[in-house]
C-alpha cells in the first residue's frame, strides 16, 4: 500500500508532524486520525512494529516513547509530536553486532515465531534501564502486558535476566560475584 493509499483510508484532515524516530528527526504530513503504529509501519517502513489486535490487548505494537513503553495502536501520530520514538530497528543496524538484549534473546531461545519479539525486546530495554536484577516473578510481572502465543514465557524470562547480566557485567553475561 502506498503512503497516499494508506492516508486515504483515514478520511481525515492532515497535519504536519515533527518528531524524533530512532535518533533522527522526521517531518511528515499525516492524517489526524492516523495511528502511531500505521505511521511507523506505512510511512517510515519500520515494520518491526507488529499489529495483532489493534485495540490495546496484545501489546505486540509496543514502542518506546521517551523511553517508556506505549501501545502504538492506541496512540495517534499527531500525539507523538516533539517526542522521541524508538523501535527495535534502533538497537543495531548490523546483524553481526547485535545489541546485548538481542543476543540474550537468541542465546536463550526467547522467541519462536517472533511476532511478539520486537515488543518484548523494547520492554526489556525499558525495564533493565535501572540496572536492577529481577527474579522470575518480577520479570513475569513486568512483561505481562505483552502476549506471546508460542514460548510459554519461561525462555523470555531467561532472556530478560541474561540481558540484565550482559548490561550490568559485560557481554559474557557472567557477573563477578556469580563466577
Ligand atoms: S496491536 Fe496494539 S495492543 Fe495489540
Ligand atoms: S514468539 Fe510467537 S508470539 Fe511470541
TrEMBL record:
Q: Which Gene3D superfamilies match?
A: 3.10.20.30, [2Fe-2S]-binding domain
Say if the entry is tagged with keyword Hydrolase: no
Q: 2Fe-2S ferredoxin-type domain: which residues?
A: 15-91
- Which pathway does it operate in? Alkaloid degradation; nicotine degradation
- Keyword terms of this UniProt record: 2Fe-2S, Iron, Iron-sulfur, Metal-binding, Oxidoreductase
Q: Name one GO molecular function term.
A: oxidoreductase activity
InterPro entries reported in the protein's UniProt record: 2Fe-2S-bd, 2Fe-2S-bd_dom_sf, 2Fe-2S_ferredoxin-like_sf, 2Fe-2S_ferredoxin-type, Beta-grasp_dom_sf, Diverse_Oxidoreductases
Report any Pfam family annotated for this entry.
Answer: Fer2_2
Q: What is this protein called?
A: (2Fe-2S)-binding protein
Amino acid at each position: 500500500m502506498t503512503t497516499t493509499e494508506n492516508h486515504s483510508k483515514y478520511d481525515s484532515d492532515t497535519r504536519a508532524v515533527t518528531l524524533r524516530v530512532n535518533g533522527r528527526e522526521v517531518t511528515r504530513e499525516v492524517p489526524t486520525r492516523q495511528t502511531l503504529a500505521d505511521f511507523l509501519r506505512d510511512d517510515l517502513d519500520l515494520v518491526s512494529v507488529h499489529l495483532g489486535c489493534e485495540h490495546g490487548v496484545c501489546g505486540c505494537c509496543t514502542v518506546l516513547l521517551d523511553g517508556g513503553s506505549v501501545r502504538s495502536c492506541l496512540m495517534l501520530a499527531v500525539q507523538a509530536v516533539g517526542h522521541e520514538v524508538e523501535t527495535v530497528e534502533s538497537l543495531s543496524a548490523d546483524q553481526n553486532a547485535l545489541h546485548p538484549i538481542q543476543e540474550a534473546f537468541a542465546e536463550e531461545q526467547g522467541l519462536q515465531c517472533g511476532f511478539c519479539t520486537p515488543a518484548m525486546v523494547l520492554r526489556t530495554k525499558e525495564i533493565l534501564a535501572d540496572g536492577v536484577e529481577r527474579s522470575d516473578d518480577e520479570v513475569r510481572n513486568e512483561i505481562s502486558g505483552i502476549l506471546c502465543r508460542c514460548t510459554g514465557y519461561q525462555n523470555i524470562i531467561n532472556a530478560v535476566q541474561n540481558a540484565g547480566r550482559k548490561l550490568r557485567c559485560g557481554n559474557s553475561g557472567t557477573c563477578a560475584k556469580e563466577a
